[in-house]
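Open question from group meeting: does this chain pack into something compact, or does most of it stay loose? Before anyone orders reagents, we agreed to write out a predicted structure and look at it together. Recording both the input and the output here so the notebook holds the full record.
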Amino acid sequence: MSKLRVGVSGAGGRMGREVLKAVSLDQDLTLTAACDPAFAMEDAGKLCGLEPNGVLIDASLKDAVLKADVWVDFTRPDIVKGNITLAVEAGKPIVVGTSGLSESYVTSLMTNNVGVLVVPNFAIGAVLMMQFAKTAHKFFPNVEIIELHHDKKVDSPSGTAVKTAEILGAKDDGIEEGPRGLNLDGIHIHSVRLPGLIAHQEVIFGGLGQILTLRHDSMDRSSFMPGVLLALKEVSKLNGPVYGLEHVLGL
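Structure tokens returned:
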């Protein structure tokens, strides 16, 4: 059985390098392409700390899109929409980990049945936290969200926090990138950006004489890799755009 050929867009970033390594070490996948203008023509294996593998990094997805069966994107909000379009037009399913895409945007995509899986958080524990929060909200209508990330994260609030608020019934209309505190349909989201953090979130419910707190912590970016690998193996089965990893976890 031939291995699934994978391409990584945003290969030189923190998450991109982790994905390069994870894909290279997975027995069902093979890394055949990567792109990142800051690391063009560098060897992808060497870039992620493995042995050189002969996969030279292209400057853009436009140059590399036909070199893989499926793509995963960890770029920037100002680049990712164009990359989705390039992949879809080439008939290549794409997994998107780049923040800044709302559920309403994803569901509006015209993909001609090409799989597009947009994932706010690839950590299985974070997905479970959101599902548990949905259950808790039936009994605790008063809730606030605190999300904490490293100081290099360019967007706030995080995609995970917005996704959580949406799961709890908020609508994403009018969300603007940048605020460190956001009131989304009555659900307050607070953003913290500090060195030393990776990705953390608390969902705090208040009731009569009690507090319920759900918290998830990613202490290392490796925590996202099982979800990324699963998404890459499942995205080709999708007929169009899907928002959230829970849809391929059977939740």
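Observations to bring back to the group:
Residues 79 and 209 are 47 Å apart (CA to CA).
The chain has two domains: 4-121+222-249, 124-219.
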